[in-house]
Amino acid sequence: MLRRSLAAVAALAVLTALSSNAAFAQGAKKLRIGVEGAYPPFSEVGADGKLKGFEIDLAYAYCKQMQRECELVQQEFDALIPALQSRKVDAIIASVSITDERKKSIAFSKPYLASPAAFIAKSGAAADVSPATLKGKKIGVQSATTFEKYVDALYKTSTVTRYQTQDQIYLELKAGRVDYTLVDKFAADAFLKTDAGKGLAFAGKDIDDEKFFGIGIGVGLRKAEAGTLGKAFDAAIDALNANGEYKKLSAKYFAYDVAPKKK
């Protein structure tokens, strides 16, 4: 009788352990995705207080494809990589360009998006946006972006002012406190088509310098997880491209193809 009781206790302990492990595994399935929430149409907070946008839709779609529960964690752009490194988030989906400099500190999935950079100014501003022409001009850029790196490197005779969000820069541009801003063309194109974008226009040609803007935009990951979570995101990216889901989501926000060009 005593042996049976001990056996029953042991069995119960094993079942409890298995149950706890299963519960832990279920909890571990939740992916915390770092997003910005201030970069329409990729990521923004709607009137209802909920996150929306192309990259928000993509984040949920990738998690669904990977059969993982998804939790979006909103951060300012310049806080996203530190949040990843400190394990506050597990991945970043926030228009983070894949550059050699960033690859020194984090890993990336394969590109899921590609967009050139472009200058914006008030309508009628000079179309020539060379460093010589913009000498003495005020250029607004978002902190910790490739746009900031590009302007810092090439526009040394301009006054460069940094902001936390691109929306702040648009307001400064309309108010005349900055003369130009450098931004993702697809994001800017969507903004220029709104009432808030009236009076502003693209200036100069598209800029697609791989040295500064990398090979596209990817999911940011910790280096230690490049071979696990990174491969899972790569597979999800391929699956959504193959089954037409990426194209379907893209069409909600853009009238053109935003997928990286195959090389």
**How many E-type strands?**
13
User: Runs with pLDDT <50, length 5+?
Assistant: 1-27
Give the overall shape, derived from the CA principal axes: globular
Strand content: 15-25%
What do you see in this structure?
The chain is of the alpha/beta class and 263 residues long. The protein contains nine helices and 13 strands. It has a five-stranded mixed beta sheet, sandwiched between helices. The longest helix is centred in the first third of the chain and has 27 residues, at 2-28. The relative contact order is 0.17. Mean pLDDT is 90; it is low at 1-27.
What is the topological layout?
Layout: H1 2-28, E1 31-35, E2 38-39, E3 43-45, E4 51-52, H2 54-66, E5 70-74, H3 77-85, E6 91-92, E7 107-108, E8 117-122, E9 138-142, H4 146-154, E10 159-163, H5 166-175, E11 180-184, H6 185-192, E12 200-207, H7 210-213, E13 220-221, H8 229-243, H9 245-251
Parallel strand pairs: 1-5, 1-6, 9-10, 9-11
Antiparallel strand pairs: 2-3, 3-4, 7-13, 8-11, 8-12
Quick structural summary:
Helix content is 39%, strand content 20%. It has 263 residues and is an alpha/beta fold.
Keywords:
263 residues; alpha/beta; five-stranded mixed sheet; three-stranded parallel sheet; 39% helix; disordered N terminus
